[in-house]
Amino acid sequence: MGYLYLAVAILAEVVATSALNASQGFTRLWPSVVTVVGYSIAFYALSLTLRTVPMGIAYAVWAGVGIVLIALVGALFFRQQPDLPAVIGMAFIVLGVVLVTFVSRTMHIE
């Protein structure tokens, strides 16, 4: 169940960060509201994740997947194209998340 909460946290954070970009410094009401609500949901879901997933693992997956998804949202919706070094760096992040999630023996709280 912890990884389901982690997925919710990641998706809420991606929505909130995207809305933060669209809020133009909190000068636009609805994107600002989506930002606050999205981050609230993200942190609540992350707190539920920490009941069953070790903090370091949860945060590494949350941050790593969030970075890649935000880069994709930026490219698709905000015309912020990453260059080759950025893409290579994100590939390493994905590799790190895979190693932490599927190879590490510290996946669950004992």
UniProtKB/TrEMBL annotation:
Family that this chain belongs to: Belongs to the drug/metabolite transporter (DMT) superfamily. Small multidrug resistance (SMR) (TC 2.A.7.1) family.
Keyword Transport: yes
InterPro entries the record matches: EmrE-like (IPR037185), Small_drug/metabolite_transptr (IPR000390), Small_multidrug_res (IPR045324)
Stretches that traverse the bilayer: 29-50, 57-78, 84-103
Keyword Transport on entry: yes
One of the Pfam families matching this protein, by short name: Multi_Drug_Res
Protein localization: Cell membrane
Keywords per UniProt: Cell membrane, Membrane, Transmembrane, Transmembrane helix, Transport
Main location: membrane
Upper classification of the organism: Bacteria, Pseudomonadati, Pseudomonadota, Gammaproteobacteria, Oceanospirillales
Membrane topology: Multi-pass membrane protein
Protein name, entry field: Small multidrug resistance protein
Organism: Alcanivorax jadensis T9
